[in-house]
Write a structure and sequence with these properties.
The protein is an alpha/beta fold and about 260 residues long. Helix content is about 30%, strand content about 20%. The protein has a 6-stranded parallel β-sheet.
Length: about 260
């Protein structure tokens, strides 16, 4: 059972040096990155925290995020890769670490899976950011389309699994891919590779905290000792085997700001 974030103690957080976060409906609110949430990101950096978004969003978005946001790395497409800035040449150069385990036949298999999805769900539409993706297929369940029924979402997830694909539900998409990785694997493999892009050593396992909002964050809630759900996660709590340690009072970006205030005050 998750505890209220307002009950967290300074002792619980005394060693936190790194913050990992989901983006959609965790950092953002109703599809927008508010001034308050973006300022909270900057406050973390100014206080010396290592900041790593871990998102289902595509490579094209992640390229922009690592270049323009106050973050140290970004894990994208549910763990397929990590973008970071290499400073070894004396200037910032965007580089990519690819997570081991991606199926070399992934694109061909995804094309076949997409046809089967359309056969079962003629109304299905790919996410509007699909053209910027490298490793997965994202089906829009509410971002730019009318919200899907819960039973249809479950049937879509089941179909993907039956076809041998991984599939995860976010607050806006069902992401599916072929390969042995997820958000947790992507983050761990980046650390194992030396936390590329960090000028100093990465925080130890218990020195990180993670915040998310949906079922595709469950591997992270399981992995991290310190984990937080924003209040909108409550709609999924009954389906989670591994809920976060704490849950915020506010939803989405407001919940993120709530966590950051406690960490940085």
């Amino acid at each position: 059972m998750s505890k209220a974030w307002e009950s967290v103690s300074s002792l619980d957080l005394k060693n936190i040096k790194g913050v990992c976060l989901d983006i959609d409906d965790t950092l953002s609110s109703h599809g927008k990155l508010t001034a308050e949430a973006y300022a909270a990101l900057w406050r973390l950096k100014e206080k010396g925290f290592v900041v790593v978004p871990i998102t289902g969003r595509p490579a094209g978005w992640c390229d922009q995020i690592i270049r323009f946001w106050p973050v140290d790395a970004v894990v994208g497409e549910n763990g397929a890769f990590t973008f970071y800035m290499d400073k070894s040449s004396g200037r910032d150069v965007r580089k990519k670490f690819t997570t081991p385990g991606i199926d070399p036949e992934a694109q061909k298999k995804l094309a076949s899976l997409h046809k089967k999805i359309l056969a079962h769900f003629p109304f299905a539409a790919v996410a509007s950011d699909q053209q910027y993706r490298e490793c997965d297929l994202a089906i829009d369940i509410c971002e730019d389309v009318a919200p899907w029924k819960d039973e249809d979402i479950k049937a879509l997830l089941d179909l993907c699994h039956q076809e041998g694909a991984e599939a995860k539900l976010s607050s806006i998409h069902v992401n599916t891919w072929f390969g042995q990785y997820d958000k947790k694997t992507g983050f761990k493999e980046w650390l194992k590779a030396g936390a590329l892009g960090l000028s100093s050593s990465a925080p130890k396992h218990d020195d990180w905290i993670y915040i998310g909002d949906s079922p595709n964050d469950e591997p992270m809630f399981e992995y991290f000792t310190h984990s937080v759900g924003v209040a909108n996660l409550k709609r999924y709590m009954s389906s989670l085997k591994f809920p976060p340690a704490w849950i915020t009072k506010k939803e989405s970006g407001g919940g993120f700001c709530e966590m950051v205030k406690t960490l940085t005050d």
